[in-house]
Sequence to fold (514 residues):
Amino acid sequence: MRDVAVIGMGITKFGELWRSPLRDLHAEAVADCLADAGIERRQVQSAWIGCMSSGLFNGQEHLASILTDYAGLAGIAATRVESACASGGAAFRAAWLEVASGASDYVLATGVEKMNDGADATYCLSTAADQEYEVYHGVTFPGLYAMIAKAHMHKWGTTREQLADVAVKNHRHGALNPKAQFPQEITRATVLGAVMVASPLGLFDCSPVSDGAAAVLLAPVEVARALGKPVVRILGSGHATDTIALHDRADVSRIPVVQAAARRAFAMAGVGPRDIDLVEVHDCFTIAELVCLEELGFFEPGKAAAATSAGETALGGRIPVNTSGGLKSKGHPVGATGIAQIAELYEQLTGKAGKRQVKDARRGLAQNMGGSGGSCTVHILEVSR
Amino acid sequence: MISPRYHREIPQRYRLEAGRCADCGEIHFPPRAVCRKCGARESTTVVLPNRGKVVTCTVVDIPPAEFDDQKPYVNAIVELENGVRLTCMVAEAPPDAVDIGTEVELIFRRLRCGREWEVLQYGYKARVV
Fold:
């Protein structure tokens, strides 16, 4: 297999973008990405499009056609990839495989979701859980993560205050990100005083309903070198699945699919958690950030909460987590999230992250997760200058 | 929900029918075409015990639209006496009466009315013992 690099990124503003249709959000991200890479449209051979549920959110399927058409790319090969909230990560992996295999040289990995378009977002998202044996009984996504949180609190003594500190930290990071949906700093009191969604998770423990798109362009490492820019190589890619129903997993305080994907990515990369300078994790809920950090191996089980409250995962801390603001503050247009994470790593590793720049960042890890942990991708990127 | 889809799951929702793998004995709820443990395709029907304990739970304050008339309600993962786990609502108890370890039994209840052209939807809920 060939070594593959990310050679450009584009990302739209995330938020409630009532005037922007799905097709234009995607086209904007692609245009920004190609301009950033310095690559002509006619050079792009293929696109992998991550999107969870345009059929339910917008009544629109067949994204391979409509989104390439409106991006000015009609004619290329394109495929829509769906793995719930891990759709973006799965699209990125597919694009990596296409370039690594030698089949194509310039391949786009994109992600998009337009969740504010009239549909019941809680219902649309719930289709990522077991329709007949979870959703039928009134379960929601906040409810599933609340049950994980309850079990984690019971086992490790994790507190609501510690969960709140995840949201406070991510909003502090997001306040430095011009693309973030909610770039406002918040306090513990904001989180703890918010309306309950599914106890112990309140409104500020939950990522928002968002519109947005992101795109990255992949090419062989030789092509990246010829462009004369820092080379951001894909060092490791891991992908795993688990049972769709939370109740079918032995320990509901854990999300084992994350560990499974991480082991594959670390094994391929030949590095471990200590070799990573920054992390983007899938903080769809505050509890998810803590559990994912533990599954990824950055902290022992039960230790991520205290470390977060001590500032270890903040900008300037030992291992900065979600410098973009994470799903919580930056926003979570579900199909776009996995690509937006890669875009953040690319900006950080090429030294273009502005006020949220991690000094001398050399290796970054992105973890993108579907459902209550039914699927997960982990990617490790490394820059060489 | 259309009636053929509803009808299909009645043995599980009304009678707690599970499948036991004919080869390795693994119990699946709902029954599966292929055993998750050994891959065998033959299974027999067994009925689940209706007593168990709460593994984890939550109080849902903001439900999907079709459950709005029942909020707030408790959702729980229940481990039955034979080790099988399932997700359900806990009925007939104030939310703070349910916690990890609470002993419950499964009962037959209406779960939701659905939209006016849909069938009424029944199944199991848990009740604190």
Notes: The longest strand of chain B covers residues 51-60. Strands of chain B lie at 17-21, 27-28, 43-47, 51-60, 73-80, 85-91, 103-112, 121-128. The interface with chain A takes residues 9, 30, 55-67, 70, 73, 75-77, 85-89, 95, 100, 111-112, 121, 123, 125 of chain B (CB under 8 Å). The helical segments of chain B are 3-8, 10-15.
